[in-house]
Design a protein that fits this description.
Blueprint (H helix, E strand, L loop, with lengths): L6 H7 L38 H11 L12 E10 L19 E9 L14 E9 L2 E8 L12 H8 L15 H9 L4 H8 L13 E2 L4 E4 L5 E10 L4 E2 L2 H10 L3 H11 L5 E10 L25 E10 L4 H6 L12 E2 L4 H17 L77 H8 L3 H16 L4 H14 L1 H11 L25 E2 L1
Helix pairs in contact: 3-4, 4-12, 5-10, 11-13, 12-13
Bound molecules: protoporphyrin IX containing FE.
Protoporphyrin IX containing FE binds next to strand 2, strand 3, strand 4 and helix 9.
Length: about 525
């Protein structure tokens, strides 16, 4: 049964080019009757410059590629709808979080991070889980990952981190994210990464299916209600099918047999009507409780344990349509953490602040200039009205004789009564390049993660460390990593040290906060 066409699908209809049996034309609309031979002087002579059809065809081919994403280059997308369970007016004015009668159209792109566009799906890596909500008040992008934390605390480190993760500069080897010296060198010198590295060495880094994968907004964001009151929020996607991983031996086999494994699974499930579903949940923290935790809410290397702040389900997304054209839709989609709607705002997490600069900046290059929001997949479903103008690939014909404000010639646009208002937060401080001491603890939650694992999960983590660190050439990097693991848990460090032929680090006291009773995710992880 075909799902009902939503506002985004109806908008896209105007841009579709159906396959039909009408005759071919050039880009200028000139009919073409022969496309198999170039125009030449005699049957064996040189090709003639005047063959505009030949030149256009070759030129268009020569320019088909655009830069792949600088990270998250490999991905797969799908359309869906988001259905809200109950209005959240006490928390936010966002229209799509208050209207239960009309589902919000969405587009999701799942991705790996380190590999290039043609790399294999099932590598050990973080997975992107980016969602565009086409709301009546504009696009809201929830640009998340399948891990709830990140490698670094400040976005100024992102270029360093990605340079360490990507293949080494001299020979572009290795393609595997973590099996090389530069990655582990960065980690051993940057212990804030250790919590994320524990997730990366766990089976969470080899998801069985995009349909069985959690998503996290990672940062603390803010919801703002009609009285201007803010509430801190962490976003979570929970797959209705449950969270399942591959095991490493499967990964090794699948990469050879079907590098498109996750992409194919998503496509085929949607084609056969087994629509992937995810519940959107929130963890809410009143502003008054901001400092009630033994970590900083602004630190993206920390989770809020669910025992301290439980998850509240607020709605459900169903992915029910495959794209028609990979390039037009999945490749050209542009997500951005700063795409928020009234009632949703940022926190001062320094990683989030950096992302709010970086996505638009890179998309200006990747998608060829400032008019990429006009590309069909990126267009909001509501009308866009402003005085921006010109630029490469301008598709709209603005009829106004003026494009400035205020003006006395063609009238001013009335101010929106429901316009975006930034949360009124008092900000105070001296300009300083220094991290807050509240960001200093890098080990407790790594230990918490280890303690929350079942025995078989712990064995997989040890095996992953042995595989990845086993590829590291420089002994000092391996030794430093084993010392870090010793501070996370001696039961982790000992087998890794032994497997690498290194001395076991001295047993240090495990951090008092790392209670084994606290679960990391609220969902048991299992292999299928
Ligand atoms: C792309 C997530 C941190 C810069 C992406 C994508 C996701 C994502 C899901 C793929 C979007 C798509 O499918 O098109 C995250 C998460 C982060 C994080 C969850 C941390 C919590 C950062 C940071 C920066 C950054 C700190 C830079 C300061 C980028 C860039 C792209 C990207 C430049 C490519 C965007 C494009 O070309 O369209 N990220 N990211 N990310 N991310 Fe991040």
């Amino acid at each position: 049964m075909q799902p009902e066409r939503d506002a985004k699908q109806r908008q896209l209809d105007a841009d579709r080019v159906p396959l039909d049996d009408r005759t071919m034309t050039t880009d200028q609309g000139v009919p073409v009757d022969h496309t198999d031979d170039s125009l030449r002087a005699g049957t064996r002579g040189p090709t003639l410059m005047e063959d505009f059809h030949f030149r256009e065809k070759l030129t268009r081919f020569d320019h088909e590629r655009i830069p792949e994403r600088v990270v998250h280059a490999r991905g797969a997308g799908a359309y869906g709808v988001f259905q809200l369970y109950e209005p959240l007016g006490d928390l936010t004015t966002a229209a799509f979080l208050n209207d239960t009668s009309t589902p919000t159209p969405t587009f999701v792109r799942f991705s790996t991070v380190a590999g290039s566009r043609g790399s294999a799906d099932t590598v050990r890596d973080v997975r992107g889980f980016a969602t565009k909500f086409y709301t009546p008040e504009g696009n809201f992008d929830l640009v998340g990952n399948n891990f709830p934390v990140f490698f670094i605390q400040d976005g100024i480190k992102f270029p360093d981190f990605v340079h360490a993760v990507k293949p080494e500069p001299h020979n572009e080897i290795p393609q595997a994210q973590s099996a090389h010296d530069t990655f582990w060198d960065f980690i051993q010198l940057q212990p804030e990464s250790l919590h994320m590295v524990m997730w990366l060495m766990s089976d969470r880094a080899i998801p069985r299916s995009f349909r069985m994968m959690q998503g996290f907004g990672v940062h603390t964001f803010r919801l703002v209600n009609a009285s201007g009151q803010g509430t801190f929020v962490k976003w979570h996607w929970r797959p209705v099918l449950g969270t399942y991983s591959l095991v490493w031996e499967e990964v090794l086999r699948i990469q050879g047999n079907d590098p498109d494994y996750n992409r194919r699974d998503l496509w085929e499930a949607i084609e056969r009507g087994a629509y992937p579903e995810y519940e959107l949940c929130v963890q809410l923290v009143p502003e008054s409780r901001e400092h009630d935790f033994d970590f900083d809410l602004l630190d993206p290397t920390k989770i809020i344990p669910e025992e301290q702040v439980p998850l509240r389900p607020v709605g459900r997304m169903t992915l029910n349509r495959n794209p028609h054209n990979f390039f037009a839709e999945t490749e050209q989609v542009a997500f951005h953490t700063a795409n928020v709607v009234p009632g949703i705002d940022f926190s001062n997490d320094p990683l989030l602040q950096a992302r709010n600069f970086s996505y638009l900046d890179t998309q200006l290059l990747r998608l060829g200039g400032p008019n990429f929001p006009q590309i069909p997949i990126n267009r909001p479903v509501n009308e866009v009205r402003n005085d921006q103008r010109d630029g490469f690939h301008q598709h709209r014909i603005h009829e106004s004789r003026t494009s400035y404000a205020p003006n006395s010639i063609s009238g001013n646009r009335p101010a929106a009564t429901d316009g975006y208002r930034h949360y009124q937060e008092r900000v105070d401080g001296v300009k300083i390049r220094q991290r807050s001491p509240s960001f200093e603890d890098h080990y407790s939650q790594a230990t918490l993660f280890w303690n929350s694992m079942a025995d078989w999960e712990k064995r997989h983590i040890v095996a992953a460390f042995l595989f990845e660190l086993g590829h590291v050439e420089r002994p000092h990097i391996k030794e430093a990593m084993v010392r870090h693991l010793g501070r996370i848990h001696p039961d982790l460090a000992a087998p890794v040290a032994q497997g690498l032929g290194l001395p076991e680090p001295p047993r240090t006291e495990v951090h008092a906060n790392a209670s084994p009773a606290l679960s990391m995710t609220g969902q048991p992880q299992s292999v299928a």
